[in-house]
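[09:14] KT: can someone run the structure on this one? pasting the chain below
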Amino acid sequence: QLQLVESGGGLVQPGGSLRLSCAASGFTLDYYDIGWFRQAPGKEREGVSCMSSSDGSTHYADFVKGRFTISRDNAKNTVYLQMNSLKPEDTAVYYCYSDRGLWGQGTQVTVSS
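[09:31] RB: done, structure tokens below
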């Protein structure tokens, strides 16, 4: 079964860190471009970061540059999003997306004191 499963979300205080994971099954993750998106309540889904399958190059939205890092473990068929210096405005449901045409189910990240 083709699927992406996110994990690692939770409640964290401002300035804290979380690492999100997105595990792929049924296909090889690094054959396709992969990205992280987020959607806050009442807002549209927006791109956060992506990684190219061809050369591993990465891109980040301006609002996370210097704080978030996307990475991939091919042996585990998993992509990660390391999130540091979290802010309340980072609160959202985070989704991973594979250019295979798949979305994960999302994981909630809440940044609050």
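[09:33] KT: thanks! The first strand starts at residue 3 and ends at 7.
[09:34] RB: yep, looked fine to me
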